[in-house]
Design goal:
Strand order of the largest sheet: 1-2-3-4-5-7-6
Shape: globular
Number of helices: 5
Structural class: alpha+beta
C-alpha cells in the first residue's frame, strides 16, 4: 500500500453518500474487523445515509483531504441513558496513518457529542493483542479504562471499556 501524503489541513464533516465505499474499504483494510463487524459498519452507515442521524441514532463523520476519505468515525446516543454516547468506530486509512487523523476524529466526535448535550463517551474494544494499538490510542487521548469483562466476545477475547468524561 502506498503512503498518502496529506497537508496539515484536512476536513472533518458529516459523511455523505459518496463516502460510503471508501469507508467500507477502510473498515475492510483495517486488519482487525471481522466480516460480521464490517457488515455492521455497512448496516449502520446505510441507516445513517437513508434515515439521517436523528432517526437512525447513528452519526458518521468523514475525514477528507485532497478529495480522499482518510478516516471515519461513528457514534450515537446510548439507549436508556441521559447524555451518554457510544463511540462505535474510529478507523483511518492505513496509508494515511500517524498523521493525527484518528485524534482529530476523536476530538470532533467529542465536540459533536458535547454540542448534542452529551456528558460521557463510552468506547468498547477487544482485549486481543491486535487491538493493543487501539487501546494505546484511547489511553493517549484522555480516555480512561473503566472496566474489563473477561471472555466477553469469545473465550480469551475480553471486552475493554473506556470512558471519556466531557
Amino acid at each position: 500500500m502506498t503512503s498518502v501524503a496529506i497537508s496539515t489541513t484536512f476536513q472533518i464533516e458529516p459523511t455523505c453518500t459518496g463516502d460510503a465505499e471508501a469507508i467500507l474499504t477502510i473498515a475492510r483494510s483495517a486488519g482487525v474487523f471481522n466480516a460480521e463487524e464490517i457488515a455492521a459498519v455497512d448496516e449502520l452507515l446505510h441507516a445513517y445515509l437513508v434515515q439521517g442521524a436523528e432517526a437512525s441514532g447513528y452519526h458518521f463523520l468523514s475525514c477528507r483531504a485532497n478529495g480522499h476519505v482518510l478516516g471515519f468515525a461513528c457514534y450515537g446516543p446510548r439507549p436508556l441513558t441521559h447524555g451518554t454516547y457510544d463511540l462505535y468506530w474510529i478507523a483511518t486509512d492505513k496509508a494515511a496513518g500517524r498523521q493525527g487523523i484518528g485524534g482529530a476524529l476523536l476530538q470532533r466526535v467529542t465536540e459533536e457529542v458535547q454540542r448534542l448535550g452529551g456528558q460521557m463517551l463510552i468506547i468498547e474494544t477487544s482485549g486481543l493483542p491486535q487491538y493493543e494499538p487501539a487501546r494505546r490510542f484511547y489511553e493517549s487521548h484522555g480516555c480512561t479504562r473503566a472496566a474489563v469483562i473477561a471472555d466477553f466476545y469469545a473465550p480469551g477475547d475480553d471486552l475493554v471499556i473506556y470512558i471519556r468524561h466531557l
